[in-house]
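Page 42, continued from yesterday. The earlier attempt failed because a stray header line got pasted into the input along with the sequence. Redoing it now with the clean sequence only.
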Amino acid sequence: MASIGEDAASAGDVPPAAAAVADGAHLLGFSDEILLHILSHVPSIDLILNVRRTCRKLAALCLDKSLTHTVLLQKDYEASEDKVKQLVTEIGWEIQQLSMAGCYWLSGSTVEHVARCRGLVKVNLSGCHLTSLRLSKVLSALQRLRSLAIDVSPGFDASQLSGECKATLSRVRELKQTLYTPSYGVVPCCTSLEKLLLYFEILDRTREGAVLSGQLMVGQSNVPRYQHLRVFYARLAPGYINQEVVRLYLAVLSDRTPENLHAFLISVPGSFAESGATKNLLESMARNVALDALQLPKSWLNGSALLQHMKFSSPFYFSFSRCALSGGHLIRRVIDGGRDLRSLAGLNLSGCAHCLAPDSLLRKAEDDIDSGILETLVAACGNLRHLNLSAAHHHSPEGPGRHLCQLLARLCHLRSLSLPVCAVADSAPRADRAPVQPATHAVPRGFGKKVRIGVPSGPDPFSGQAGPLPSSVFWSLLKSVPFLDRLELIGSNFSSAMPRNEPAIRNSLPPCGRAQSVGDSEVAAIGQLAFLRHLTLAQLPSILTGSGLVSIGVQCQQLQSLSLAHLGTMGKVAYTSALADMLKHCKRLKDLRLEQPYFSANAQFFQALSQCSALQRLCLVSRSGTLQPEAVLAFMARCLHVVVCHLFTGESLSTCRSLQQSLLRSFQAERPALNVVIFPLLHEGLTDVIRDVPMVHLDEVTLFKSRVAEEPPNLWW
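This time it went through. Structure tokens are written below.
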């Protein structure tokens, strides 16, 4: 656009670049509506500081309210201090919604410029550097604010908040608060709260080794008031201190259950014992409110008749993650024998080993599911968009139409799906299974070799033409959900060396026996998903050459995040060449997480990775793995957008420290958001290193977790 001159203000003034384009096909020949749609995909800083200066027509369009009303700076890693200040100076008065979530590289003085956006109604400052005094100054100027997201860090002092700040907080209706220290934060000041989201990330010990306690909050004069609350959500990281603090929040809630409460969700890793206050709260909710969304700690539901007494109006989200919920209980207590649950958009049954099986004390986790239970579930929840069945063995019985994949194929509205690997295997290994016919074309592989992709021949899934279908039930499932945006295939026994919200496990269990029949051809079937943006594959022991990965790279052109873990036989990495071929085609890939023991991150790997021109974040986790420092430096020099480089391998501490210092010294100045962590995976100091990683990267890339139906849809923006 830089070639478009200032003389393009009127229809008669055609820029030189446009003169060479026949039949008015120049960009400025489009209608304003089309141009506004195009410009809506341009980052706000580029839009205002660059595109706006190309010509008078674009200058006017770039200031259209549809573009300046909402400004999203999260993950805009090129947003420097000066650019953010200049943006606020030029259009601050127009901004009504501003997200600076995860802008950890911006100083507190820059974040303070948000106070100039006096028309703000909604602001997200999670992950930003803000002291109590700076927060007070910002909020004092935002009298129209109704939605706020902040962090509460050690040193926070509510007594430093001014009267004007508290007046603003009293009008806030939505609050997302991430706690890094035991505190009520600003919740007591928010007397009009309708939605409260709490994220507990408090560590049990300080850096100096002092033990923290939630008792620090006892006796505080200001406590939360929840009388207008409609949504309560709490997500806890591991640690007793987080449980201790959330109990203090719940104790206030249990005194009087808000009559308008319609969503109550608590996500807790591990066990979380009930207290007298929580029992009173649950009994009160069962009597007085009808919920639309529910998630409870597994220890509150296991062996409890609570679900029988809860009332639901038009539920849109249920999570029973890791609960001992049998299929019979699911049908009787939640689905109520097959009632209409078409309003349900998200269902999380991860870790529910018996949720698709009848009530039986003698049943083993590896036994076949009851297809009738799944069929009832699918029929009742026909509009499901997000479904998580991971972390369990869901083995399908023999018989036509009884396979899990065949039943799930009826959920045509699915947008995200998480399944255990063994669930997509055929009902049982069959000697007469027809082999999948590979495509007739070959794709260049590795470094000059050729390999045939295991893609069944046939028509394009959108062409509508009939053709031979592969024998795989998994292929048929994916053909039925062509608009799937996120897919996870995770081995039932998989445990990451760096899990999220679970204790770290060094030794993983062997894969499920049925997972042995899921290999390259099943992975190739994922290539049907033309709109796929997020893919996770973990613990697939029968990946031989990795040819299916090439198929995904070629066909899934929208892919933005990729997580691969423990593919193939343990101790042997046989898919390196195929991965290199895949990466050549991933032009929109932004996040790559690779967890593979004995992986060699050599020059060939990083050379292939360099072709992912949009890559921003890389995390490699490899027990006994190796890396070549020179290759890492060359990769960072070629990939100009990479701002996260986390490498946890078997290299020595001195090698890791030397490489980390070299990267920071070479690239920190030109990449203000650069975050480099290179450390031995099995070193005892890893925990202390991880605590310094910005939460936005820790939660999304560095630590492994299932993300399908993890939270209710549209919980926050």
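Notes: The first strand starts at residue 70 and ends at 72.
Reminder to self: strip header lines before submitting.
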